[in-house]
């Protein structure tokens, strides 16, 4: 990237007249800076290390005095916004293939991917930016944050998952036994209704030339069952008849159907009033505005049944320290 283009795109102010005219790479961490790098000084304490590693430029939103006149010093107003602009410029020069996927898919891919060919962007914009800047053209970059991809001007490609040889042998409510690509997996923590999402995740990794492993396979945040006692305290897996299931509202209809068809116990769905939800399944449903209101909807002692909660994660619903004493810490949802 040429120095004048960086200054123009970022709207920054060049603080000196350096001898350099271009940058070969962009680094967010001083340890990743090398000869020819433009160092984005998210932490000014890293500037000295970046210079020692050969950085040709420093860009910061802090007031600094140039320490080396051969290096370009650029001052901007907001470094977070500037980083998005820099990524736009960097991607014009460095082509990358981006694939947008829903979070239900990303959760499975994060669990099973074991190859550098697939880059899975984290939620944090800075961490995601670092992964992009250290990626290679041969890698496929996946993200479930459409807004971030739009902000950096990513050219989003359409990827079709490769066919996956998958056969369900047997299935219970929260686990299944299956054959995947010739390998047998017994009583894996995969709900039958989530198998279509799981196999699509495998197919996308195959299409990207990436490998996978099921050693870390587990229930994802989009369908997370938690067994509880009559006082709504989490207990050991399978040790009670009360299950709170944290679900993503975009789950396949089959997940709701599967639970609602169970005749030997009750099934109820709780949905935030702020979320539009239409379902033609005759399932008992209640709306809630806050976590405290949601908890009040549960009648204690809790009767056996499946209680699905949409729009809320189990880490927010439960306070682990308080659960042991039988108390809840009420936290805001929105």
Name the descriptors.
disordered C terminus, 334 residues, alpha/beta, 3 domains, Udp-n-acetylmuramoylalanyl-d-glutamate--2,6- Diaminopimelate Ligase, Chain: A, domain 1, 27% helix, five-stranded mixed beta sheet
Structure at a glance:
This protein is an alpha/beta fold and 334 residues long.
Describe this structure in words.
The chain is an alpha/beta fold and 334 residues long. It has three domains: 3-91, 3-Layer(aba) Sandwich (Udp-n-acetylmuramoylalanyl-d-glutamate--2,6- Diaminopimelate Ligase, Chain: A, domain 1), CATH 3.40.1390; 95-218, no CATH class; 223-323, no CATH class. It has helices at 3-10, 47-52, 79-93, 103-112, 125-133, 146-151, 195-207, 253-260, 291-297, 314-317, 320-323, and strands at residues 13-14, 25-27, 37-40, 57-60, 72-75, 97-100, 118-120, 140-143, 156-157, 166-171, 176-180, 183-188, 223-228, 242-247, 266-272, 284-288, 305-310. The strands form four sheets. The protein has a five-stranded mixed beta sheet with strand order 1-5-4-3-2. Strands 13-14-17-15-16 form a five-stranded mixed beta sheet. The protein has a four-stranded parallel beta sheet with strand order 7-8-6-9, with helices on both faces. A hairpin with a 4-residue loop joins strand 10 (166-171) and strand 11 (176-180). Helix 1 crosses helix 3 and helix 4 (103-112) crosses helix 7 (195-207). The longest helix is centred in the N-terminal third of the chain and has 15 residues, at 79-93. It is elongated, with a radius of gyration of 25 Å.
């Amino acid at each position: 990237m040429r120095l004048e283009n960086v200054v123009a795109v970022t709207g920054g102010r060049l603080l000196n007249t350096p001898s350099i005219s271009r940058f070969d790479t962009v680094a967010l961490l001083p340890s990743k800076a090398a000869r020819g790098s433009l160092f984005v000084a998210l932490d000014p304490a890293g500037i000295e290390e970046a210079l020692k590693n050969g950085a040709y430029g420093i860009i910061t939103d802090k007031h600094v005095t140039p320490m080396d006149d051969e290096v370009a010093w650029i001052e901007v107003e907001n470094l977070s916004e500037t980083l998005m602009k820099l990524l736009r410029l960097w991607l014009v020069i460095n082509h990358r293939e981006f694939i947008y996927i829903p979070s239900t898919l990303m959760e499975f891919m994060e669990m099973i991917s074991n190859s550098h060919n697939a880059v899975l962007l984290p939620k944090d914009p800075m961490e995601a930016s670092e992964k992009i800047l250290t990626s290679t053209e041969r890698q496929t970059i996946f993200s479930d944050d459409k807004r971030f991809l739009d902000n950096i001007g990513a050219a989003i490609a359409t990827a079709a998952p490769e066919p996956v040889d998958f056969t369900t042998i047997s299935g219970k409510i929260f686990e299944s036994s299956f054959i995947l690509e010739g390998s047998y997996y017994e009583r894996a923590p995969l709900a039958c209704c989530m198998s279509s999402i799981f196999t699509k995740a495998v197919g996308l990794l195959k299409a990207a030339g990436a490998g996978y492993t099921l050693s870390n396979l587990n229930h994802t945040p989009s369908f997370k069952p938690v067994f509880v006692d009559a006082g709504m305290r989490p207990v050991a897996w399978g040790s009670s008849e009360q299950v709170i299931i944290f679900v993503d509202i975009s789950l396949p209809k089959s997940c709701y159907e599967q639970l609602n068809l169970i005749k030997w116990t009750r099934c109820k769905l709780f949905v935030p009033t702020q979320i539009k939800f239409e379902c033609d399944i005759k399932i008992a449903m209640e709306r809630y505005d806050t976590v405290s209101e949601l908890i009040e909807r549960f009648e204690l002692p809790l009767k056996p049944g499946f209680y699905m909660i949409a729009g809320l994660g189990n880490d927010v619903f439960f306070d682990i320290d308080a659960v042991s004493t039988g108390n809840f810490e009420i936290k805001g949802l929105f």
